[in-house]
Amino acid sequence: MLSAGRHKLSLARTAEVLACVQENPRRIGHLIECLWDEDAGVANRASVVLEKFTRERPGVLVRWKPQLLGLLAESTENVLRWHLAVIVPRLPLSASECRCVAKTLASWLDDASSIVKTQALQGLADLTAQAPFLLQDVTDLVRIHGRSGTPAMRARSRHLLKRLTRAAEARLR
User: Fold this and answer.
1) What distances in angstroms separate CA 33 from CA 30, 44, 51, 74, 122, one per listed residue?
2) Is the predicted pLDDT of residue 101 greater than 80, yes or no?
3) Cβ distance 161 to 139 under 8 Å?
4) Distance between CA atoms of residues 137 and 46, nearest Å
């Protein structure tokens, strides 16, 4: 079903695939395998489905954490990157894994794609929920890109700054 799209950005039958995975979560392994498909469209559509599925059930990916961390570090396809930017911070990560993910996502802030940059900011902010030691550095990055980034980055930064500020204030109490 994921190979049905004519263009690599086509969503094709992702809604059907999402419904299948929601009905039978054991199929998630097949979806994970698609992230490495030669056809960028298949990998992109698999990442769309995984991102949507893990909004509610991030724990299903724990089994594939090492593979997803490796893919985060090596991926070059923009659609895959912008979905991994928000999927990977949903995984339970050690402090050193959080640092590695943060380093990768911070490097994506220099990407040519506005969506990759915006999603990298989102992923960094999400990562602070389990890595509060990153809170100040991430807040600084969000402020910087909130002033100098693309319109999408500036809009997302305003939203993220509110959330990060509340998190920082809660830590002080």
Assistant:
1) 5, 12, 15, 15, 25
2) yes
3) yes
4) 31
Let me know: does 138 contact 124? Beta carbons within 8 Å.
Answer: yes
pLDDT band at residue 35 using 50, 70 and 90 as cut-offs: very high
| CA separation, residue 57 to residues 50, 61, 87, 90, 156 (Å) | 10, 8, 11, 9, 24
Q: Which two tokens stand for residue 66?
A: 């090492």
Nearest CA to 47 among 5, 90, 18, 6?
18
The mean pLDDT value for 28-55 works out to: 90
Region class of 153: left (phi > 0), else alpha (psi between -120 and 50), else beta: alpha
Whether residue 123 contacts residue 86, with contact meaning beta carbons closer than 8 Å, is answered with: yes
Q: What is the pTM of this model?
A: 0.88
B/e letters for 121-130, b = 16+ CB within 10 Å, e = fewer, are bbbbbbbbeb
Give the burial class of 46: count Cβ atoms within 10 A of its Cβ; 0-12 exposed, 13-18 middle, 19 or more buried: buried
Q: What is the torsion angle, in degrees rounded to the nearest 10, for the CA atoms of residue 107, residue 112, residue 114 and residue 119?
A: -30
Contact yes or no for 45/80 (Cβ under 8 A): no
